[in-house]
Amino acid sequence: MANIDAKEYSAKPSTTKSRLSWLWSEYSVIIAFIVIFIASAILNPRFMDLNNQLNILMQVSIIGIIAMGMTVVMLSGGIDLSVGSVLALAGVISVLALNASGSILVGIFTALLVGSFAGFLNGLMVAKGRIASFIATLGMMAGARSIALYIADGGSVSGEVAGFTAISNSDLWIFDVPVIIFLAMTAAVFVIMHKTRFGRYVYALGSNEKAALLSAIRVDRIKIGVYTLIGSLVGIAAVIETSRLNSISSSSSGAQYELDAIAAVIIGGTRMTGGRGKIIGTLFGVLILGILNNMMNLMNVSPYLQGFVKGLIIIIAVVFQKRE
Amino acid sequence: MTDNPFMMMKSIDKSFNGVPVLKNVTLKVEKGEIHALLGENGAGKSTLMNILGGVHLPDNGSVYIDGEQVKMLNPRISQDQGISFIHQELNVVADLKVYENMFLGSELRNKAGFLKVEEMCRETHDVMATLGVDIDPKEYVRDLDTSYKQLIEIAKALLRKSRLIIMDEPTTSLAEHEVNRLFELMRSLKQSGVSIIYISHKLKEIKAVCDSYTVLRDGELVGTGSMEKENPETITKLMVGKAISQERFVHDNPFGPVIMEVKNLTSEGLFNNINFSLKKGEILGFTGLAGDGRTELFESLFGYRKKYSGEVRINGELVKIDHPRKALKAGIGFVPKNRKENAIIKDLSVIHNMSLSSMGNFESSGFLNDNLEKKRFQHYKDVLNIKVHNPQVTIDKLSGGNQQKVVIAKWLEANTDILIFDNPTQGIDVGAKQEIYQEIVALSEQGKAVIVLSSEAPEIIKICHSINVMYQGEITARFDGESADEEEIMQYATGSKREAKKIG
Q1: How many beta-carbon pairs below 8 A join chains A and B?
Q2: How far is the C-alpha of A29 from the C-alpha of A268, rounded, in Å?
Q3: Closest Cβ–Cβ partner in B346, B397, B414 for A8
Q4: Which of B161, B239, B280, B348 has the lowest CB atom count within 10 Å?
Q5: pLDDT tens, position by position, A236-262
Q6: Which residues in chain B are contacts of A197 at CB distance < 8 A?
Q7: Which long-range contacts (CB under 8 A, 24 or more apart) does B48-51 make?
Q8: Which residues in chain A have their CB less than 8 angstroms from residue B50's CB?
Q9: What is the ipTM of this complex?
Q10: For residue B353, what is the nearest residue in chain A, using CA coordinates?
């Protein structure tokens, strides 16, 4: 159709106006990030302090790692509500394994194993059981939290192995280790999504599942892979969370992490229904959330109001993306 | 043509982003006539109709209804003028009941604000009765056939007292008898003074039902006049700018050994006791009416449907195909019907759609190689004549014919010995159709085994070596492509003749 042909020309910007709108639609989250960054620098001089900047990165690293997995899940057309609970469960079990074995390596592997196994179960429910991801992971969210509470008897468990806290509390050059892990995971997920067939299949599946299946793609396995991937990322996040204070709370650790992760993905421009979105977008979505939190602390905004501001930003982000 | 047509669009110009799409186009429609609007994909038909429907504003030119100029600023104004647009994709809500769809947005309410359900049902029933159909107004639309969904759209237009109905390729998803019913309906609408603009690629239908025609090519008016005086060949020539041969495409190339053998294939309620064999280099056609089970049959053979029994042998070996991946491994490729739902991934780029079924070909040490993909696409772009300026754009920016060529390229890249095409020319313009026919024939000449499914018997006759006719899940007749005759095929397809003995 003629008007469709015409649209194709707009993909190759010819006029200033269309170039600007193309720039906006492709990179709106980066532009928003720059605006917020500059505004923060003007509003509060302490914001630009190097230690403050590194502090922001440190604070977003756990949510950031989870948000990377969430991006993949949401690109596939699903959602994972269980990340916070699975983080608590993986943390609790890994601390028990750590204390029992006395080996940090065993602790880390246990966290990874619990996280990816929970993700694998989510994947099985979604792919083979054909349960909507919202429902399946809602079940996992309740279940995993409950088991964590049961194991820890509702309280916290603390590590008893020297050196475990070093994971989150040491740094390389000027960066804290969690920040490095976060950036490394971002790079890894980026490569997976853009340079491997798995990533291509995830985009295809999220955009049109039936066509993906009819293109001879093993849709079920890809789905299981997607949830297992986010599960193992949650396992990594659990290690960082636990190591930071050398303890994990079965009741409060990871609470509402799923909402922060989903918020970062949405702000980053990934479509709720899947098929379209970018890893880089999520990275900036995470940073935007981090800066907002940081600024509210610097400006002494009541912690009770911080949720309000966050909610507002999410809604504004989505409203702007709708205009494409 | 009188000087006072019911609707006139005069000297319409329209461009998108500096690209002219319509150049000085004039369209006149008389009261109570069926006017065919013709042209290849991209000729500007949709844009012209969108201007009439108030979706786009023209850059130049004006629209007159009953001799008075009307500014179609938005769809509402167009509707108020009595213009209804029935799109190719039906706008019915499957989870609502028939009457709820009919009155969607303009429900009848009593003074307290509650819905007057019985009255709406009665009116729905009355309108349906004038159309000669008996549907329970309280039935859910999801339970109805496609042709009935179309009827609901038409009934909706009648309910709004439309004076001009635009139908955009209404017959693509209809079976032959449903098409006939639609035509009867259009004729009776015409009698009652309603004008219809009919957009279609099927010249035979246009010849059968339309009074006059207007042909667009590349956004320009190239011909208009009364249908009676024209024959299909001259109109085709106008549309594409050159004559298209109606001859058979397929030649008698020597067949190779049998590559696929199907025995007693049965799936309850869908198809029953299907037997056939396919040789290398052969093009085997399957035709029939809607509900004949041919699509379900080949979706099963491709592993999309799993519940079937019977034997499938490929190269003599018994295979159990229960996933499309296994079909691919066994050497079967499948170009499905309903491209938009089944074949294209609209968020992926043209190149990525091409490579999707054979990612292994583009990997080096586990990572995808963009340059390899680009090079392969360039190859198919040349071979299949895919028209795209920038293959990095998402595939939904291409016209239907070019999308289909990309889907075919995907399966060529997968390089399977057997290729199944289901309705390969659905919603594709005449020029691209010919190219796809040529490609299918070329594949068979390269020694591939090809199966073509189509509801259009002339298409099957044109490109197949032999033809199977299906009726209600069974193969009722087999013809040699050379001697097959459209009317005879229809007799078997409608079930009025059976040849069970021969098929056994």
Answers
A1: 138
A2: 6
A3: B397
A4: B161
A5: 999 999 999 999 999 999 999 999 999
A6: 359-360, 363, 368
A7: B48/B9, B48/B12, B48/B22, B48/B216, B49/B85, B49/B166, B49/B168, B49/B197, B49/B199, B50/A3, B51/B9, B51/B12, B51/B14, B51/B22
A8: 3
A9: 0.86
A10: A204
